[in-house]
Write a structure and sequence with these properties.
alpha/beta; Urease, subunit C, domain 1; TIM Barrel; eight-stranded mixed beta sheet; eight-stranded parallel beta sheet; 16 strands; globular; binds zinc ion; zinc; zinc ion binding; cytoplasm; imidazolonepropionase activity; Metal_Hydrolase
Length: 419
């Protein structure tokens, strides 16, 4: 690392961290050269060294408006009006967090404390959050969402998906999606999170609601539909009915699959061409094979296993079989209350058999694949100008220096939002 070089910035004054990742209109359209990058991750193999990360040493990037317009070795960079020297640091694409649950109120500190202290805890899990969310105002929900998005942005997340699922009434699900849609295009209808207490005696009636009136109210505000396919939540037949109804309304499936036990979720996801099967902790050989021969991404959420002391998903097995793997936070107040993609990268390397290169790819390009996006998760001409500068000479430090706040600067859609 070129020690001692503080980043300099001749660009206009930076904007404060805002949390919107849809259609940001940059103020300046003049080109900016970002240079003196020790190691640049492009996720475009031919653009770089041929590896999956497409690494370029001594690199530079030119951004204009909200796009990347040039990438290469710094010695070949074109002249621009603005110039930012990052002082020999590493630059990666902004993280793509393709799985979070951020529209909620309250927290579950007591539940976590009991679990980690080996004490029984009887209160209602997801239903605790449902009660708090229903009782919150729209403004409270939005303030909470904004807070966690700012937190994620400071850690380098420039694209995120988020879900409903703590309303579980027609009105409360629709308003969760309306709130989320003000901050991201990647909004997921998860009316089928759990069967709410008031329908516990008649789950079929709740499935009818989720596929009927609730779907009608929610479909205009969402891109995706999701189901928690698990014992105690929704079985394979219910999940198929819900996802199929969503597809008929133009929502594309993603599935909470095989988290707590073996089950039909992964194979249903593949059958319905879901963009992603999420969790994938308990997989048979047939499940792994199905994922490897499909366009469905296996999204692994190690924050959940960390926070519940559960068995880790086996990323190595999926990668060796040829499946596409994404990493995501699953940020939610019950089972994974982290918004940190760098933390997930470190866990995946330490405990799930991923190499540092694989984990960084899965947290950027992998997340983009799980959202079927090609404009984010990579740094190539034409891609959205989402860049993260690490206070380190290499992306490997994300796993090598766990828990250290390495993200020093972030551009999202060409706008400096951190640092
Ligand atoms: Zn989840």
């Amino acid at each position: 690392m070129n020690s001692g070089n503080e980043p300099t910035n001749s660009a206009p004054a930076t904007a404060g961290p805002d949390t919107t990742n849809s259609a940001v209109a940059p103020e300046a359209t003049a080109a900016t050269l970002i240079t003196n990058i020790a190691g640049l991750v492009t996720n475009d193999p031919p653009l770089g060294d041929g590896s999956p990360l497409g690494l370029i040493r001594d690199a530079a990037v030119v951004i204009e408006g909200d796009r990347v317009v040039w990438i290469g070795e710094s010695s070949k960079a074109p002249a621009t009006d603005n110039r930012v020297d990052v002082g020999g640091r590493a630059v990666i694409p902004g993280f793509v967090d393709s799985h979070s649950h951020l529209v909620f109120a309250g927290d579950r500190t007591a539940e976590f404390n009991a679990r980690m202290s080996g004490r029984p805890y009887e209160a209602g899990g997801i239903r605790t959050t449902v009660a708090a969310t229903r009782a919150a105002t729209d403004a409270e929900l939005e303030a909470n969402l904004t807070r966690y998005l700012r937190e994620a942005l400071r850690q380098g997340t420039t694209t995120f998906e988020t879900k409903s699922g703590y309303g579980l009434t027609v009105e409360d699900e629709a308003r969760a999606l309306r709130v989320a849609a003000r901050h991201t295009d990647e909004v997921t209808y998860l009316g089928a999170h759990v069967v709410p207490a008031e329908h516990a005696d008649d789950p079929a009636a709740y499935v009818a609601l989720v596929t009927g009136e609730m779907l009608d109210a929610c479909a205009p505000h969402a891109r995706w539909i999701d189901v928690f396919c698990e014992e105690g939540a929704f079985d394979g037949d219910q999940a198929r009915a819900i996802l199929t109804a969503g597809k008929a309304r133009g929502l594309h499936p993603r599935v909470h699959a095989n988290q707590l036990s073996y089950g039909p979720g992964v194979r249903l996801a593949v059958e319905l061409d879901a963009a992603s099967a999420d969790h994938c902790t308990h997989l048979t050989d047939e499940d792994v094979d199905a994922l490897a021969h499909s366009a469905t991404v296996a999204t692994l959420l190690p924050g959940a296993e960390f926070s519940t002391r559960a068995r880790w998903p086996d990323a190595r097995r999926l990668l060796d079989a040829g499946a596409t793997v994404a990493l995501s936070t699953d940020c939610n107040p019950g089972s994974s209350f982290t918004s940190s993609m760098p933390f997930c990268v470190a866990l995946a390397v330490r405990d799930m058999g991923m190499t540092p290169d694989e984990a960084v790819w899965s947290a950027t390009a992998g997340g983009a694949a799980a959202l079927r996006r090609t404009d984010v998760g990579r740094l190539t001409p034409g891609a959205r100008a989402d860049l993260v500068v690490l206070d380190a000479p290499s992306h490997v430090h994300l796993a090598y220096r766990p828990g250290v706040p390495l993200v020093t600067r972030v551009w999202r859609a060409g706008v400096p939002v951190v640092g």
